[in-house]
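Appendix B. Raw example, untouched.
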Amino acid sequence: MRAHTRQSNFRTASYASLLIGSIACGGSFNNLRNLGSTREAIVGLGDSLTEGAGANPGEDYPAVLLRELAFPVVNRGRRSDTTADALARLPEVLERDPRLAIVLLGGNDFLR
């Protein structure tokens, strides 16, 4: 797949995610408490998919978001994490007062 097509697909998926998120919040971002946060903008919390297992260096989705958005993105992915493991790490993420947290979990729960 060509890089341009991959970037285009990524952008389309990103916009679709934002649209779905907006609909889930009642069609408005006004219900998002941390939208005005002045701290780290985006934190990715998850398992090996967030960490970047299997991806080339700098190609994990938090790194790609950082490049595409030119906005701070912190990768808090950890290999082998289950939902319970990540839930135990949630206070660490919330202490950072993120503007947005992206949660990607469940694969390891399914495998166990």
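End of appendix B.
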